[in-house]
Each structure stands twice: as C-alpha cells, then as structure tokens.
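Q: Predict the assembly, please.
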Amino acid sequence: MLPMIASRALQALLTLLLTSVVVFVLARTSGNPVDLVLPPEATAAERRIFIERNGLDRPLPVQYAVFLGGVVQGDFGMSIRTRQPAVDLVLERLPRTLILATAGLFIALVISVPIGVLAAARRAGFWDRFGQGFALLGQSVPAFWLGIVLILVFSVHLQWLPSSGTGGWRNYVLPAIVLGWSISAGVVRLLRSSMLEVLGTEFIKLARAKGLTERRVIWKHALWNALIPVITFIGFMYGVIIASAVVVEVVFGWPGLGYLAYESTLWRDFPVLQCAVLAYTAVIVTINLLVDICYGLIDPRVRA
Amino acid sequence: MSLAAGVALPPRGRRLPWVALTVVALTILVAASAGWIAPHDPEAIDPINATLPPVFLDGGTSDYLLGTDRLGRDILSRILHGARLSLGVAAVALALGGSVGTLLGLIAGYRGGWADALIMRLADTFLAFPSVLIALVLAVTVGPGFWVVALVLGLVLWARFARLVRGEVLSWKARDFVALARVAGAGGPYIVLHHILPNIVNSLVVLCTLQVGWAIVVEASLTFLGAGIPPPAPTWGGMVAEGLDFIETAWWISVMPGVAILVVVFAFNLLGDWLRDWLDPQLRSV
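A: Predicted assembly structure:
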C-alpha cells in the first residue's frame, strides 16, 4: 500500500511540475504584458521600471527558478493588473469552483446512476435504449451551448432561475446541471457495462437462488460492486468537470477560478493565470491521488 | 487489408445507421463545397439586414433562411462555412495526435521496459493536463488560431491513441503468429508494421470516428472562450459566443450554430458506436 501511494504521489508531483514548466515557458516567451498593462503613452523609463520590478528582463531559467522558489513558499507573485498577491486572488475564487464542481458531480450521479442501473437490468429493453440515447446525446451537446439554452428557457422565458451571479441555492441550479451533464454520459456507459459484468457473476446467481427479490439483487448486491470502477473514474470525471467549469463559469458569470483564468487571459496577467492553472492542476492530481488511495482501501486486490 | 479480412458482413439484426451516415456524408460534402453552396458571403456585413429572424418566425425572409446576426451576416452561410473549419481542425488534430500516439503506442507495447514506462507515464501526464487552460495560455502567448487549436487537441489525443495501441499490441504480441514470424527471422519493426499494425487498424478507425465529435466540441468550446479560431472567421463556437449577449432578443444567433454542432457530433458518435459494435466488439472502453 505505501509504495503504491508513494509512486502515485510522485506522479502527481511530476504532472504539476510539467504543467508549471509548460505554462511558464509559454507565457514568458511570447506574451508582452508591458504593452497591455501600461498605457500607450507610458515613457521608456516607466516601461523599464515595470520590467525590472516584475523581473521580466532576466534569463528564462532564472525567472523560472525564482518563480519555483517562490511557489514553494506560497508566493506566486503579484497580479500585474490589481497588484494583489496572485495566490490570494486564486484562493478566494477556488472554493466557489470546488462547490460548483461538487454540486455538478452530485447531479451527474443522481441522474446517471439510475439510468445506468436500469439500462443494465433491462438489457435491450426500453431503458437500455434510453440509456444509450442519453449517453450519445450527453457526448454531443457542448456544455456552453446547453448553458445558453437553459438560460433562454429557465431564465429568460420562464423566469424561474437566475441566469448569472452567485447568491442563494437558485444560482447553483443551472450551472451545476450543465456541469453534471458534461460527465453523465460517461457515468451511464461505465455503470452499464460494469453492472452487466457483475450481473453475470456467480454471487449474483447465488443471491437469486437464495430467493432474494430482483430489486434487492440489483440495487443492493450488484450496484455496490458495480460502483467500484465508477468510483475510480470519479477522479478523472472531477478533472473533466473542473475543465468544463471554465466554460460554464463564463456562460453563467460565475466568479470562480475558471472565470479568473479567463479574465487573466484577456489581461495577460501572467502571475494570476499561472497560479490559476497550477491550482487547477493541483486540484485534479490531488483528487486522483485520493481516489487511488481510497480504491486501495476499498478493494484489497489492488494493494500491490 | 485487415479491414477486408476482419470484416465480412455487418452484424445481423443491426441495421446500417443510415441517418448518421447521411449526416456525416453531408457534413463532409458541405465542408468541401461551402464556397459554392452558401447563399451569401459568410463575412459580408449588411447593417440593413441585421438581426433578422429565421424564415419560420415573424419577420423572417427566405433570403436568410436561418436569419442574420447583429452585423447582418447570413447565419446559414456561416454555419456551412463553419463545417469546413470544424472538420478541418478535427482532421488535423487527429492526423497529428493519431500518428504520434500510434507510433509511441507501438513502441511502448512492443519494446516494453523503460520505453513503455516512460511513454505511458508521459501519456498519463498529458491525460491529466488541463487542456482548456493550456489552450487559454497558448491563445494569449502564441495567439489564437487554427493550428494552435489543432495542436492543443493533438496534445490530448496522442495519449488516448498511445494507450489504446499499447494495449492492443500487448494482446497481439502474445499470439502464435507473431512468435512464428520472429522464429522466421523477422525483425521488430517488420513484425510491428506487417503483423501487428494491420490487426489494430479496426480499433484505430473506431477511435478516430469517436474522437471527431470530441474534437469538434472542444474546438467549439475553445473558440467560444476566445482561445480558438479568432473572428471574423465563421466558426460554430464563435457564433454561439457572439449571440450570448443577445440571447433575450435574438436567440437564433446562438442557438442555430449549436444545433449544427449537436447534429454533426451526434452523427459522428452514433456512427462510431455502430462501427465499434461491428468492427471491434471487444473495444468497449473508448
């Protein structure tokens, strides 16, 4: 168990490091923040002071070393636009994105677990075809467009739910549904095939032979075993949800990490964009790591 | 050759997916001939005819079947031209990611050892990459554009291909005919190209078809965020973004291109599913 955790942790660290190198090199080699942040009438001296203060004149590897040294101490530099520490801006936004993503994951499971189970239990029947259609549609409808259509129907026409901003629970409904939608197709497919596999095993035959009701066999004995691959998939799905969150936050004007990354991109605010991308990656690899560890605890077979 | 050998007849009881096939064929045709069949210039601005509704709503005219956007550009023409860009990006991304991924997957699967470990760790890393964010960074630094989007998609796609191909190679490598070829004196590259690769072609066709839809959706999402193909090019994602601020008064600007994405991606996915059941029943995981 311990070596497995250690190797996974190392992998997570590598992913983070690679992301930081890629983002850093891309951002520093071609963008020119000086022209974007300073007004066009800024003097050459003002430009030079700006470049020196932000360390933009030093060699790239040195800039990266300085950056990495700072990161280890929790210093991601100052926002070029607002002059606040980048890490503060990111940490302020992060919880809102995490809450939204978790709500999306919850909605995805609530929608797709029953569909996946019924599709497997009534194989080749109505629910199976419904599940296949649902999964196909789920893969084919882009999240940003679904968000716009939902705003059109529920905010503009019916006026049931707000179209943007934060506030009460009503603000969560539409963005969480759109986020959940982006992974529901995957869950339905995975759970269906996992259920079919479990339903073919000996212990299900035994459970049926014991005279248990079909409902109990499917929803208790089979479902709990079929959920194991779904749980391992949650780390991956959380990553997908968090990535879709950028688009969904822009559509719904949700002031989370994705919206911050989008804004920083428009402003070429390096430190904030870097910090946001690294925070995103850190969340994704941490969740993957936790899921791997939980999987080891749940299923003794994978403890190698 | 394996397409002919492994495929005799479509599975019994499964009809050809005519609707999906027709839509896919039509999309390719439209993408190829958008310049001839589009009724208007997709970038021609016409303020007099701005924000016209589609023909089936009050105030619509048959000159502009799907209406016009706020600059008076014909939405139908822009959707038809958008097909060219969407399919173009998907094709380039698949060519890039597919060839690199297949090559690395073949090496990882056949060589094993440290090459396998290195390539698969790298693939895992790229799969965990927040590609949307990398695209945002690239859009600012390199500047958004057709090739940048194709590259971002390719960065994710190669890892998917490498994983699939590696797994397939491992299972084919264990077969007797590969051992026989080795006994007969065939070298590694020869065996991989002549004995293993032809058996994988079916799976590659299925994966390609299924990834076209993914590529179209991600390209549209990136363009929607301003990190894809920049305006005024007629792109489906860009058109949806342009209509976002007018959703209350002119919903068709955003909704129409979204319907195009939905229909085309749905058709590709349906075709891909059908191909998978037909060509490669074992390949359930992609």
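Chain A has a mean pLDDT of 79. Chain A touches chain B through 49 residues (CB under 8 Å).
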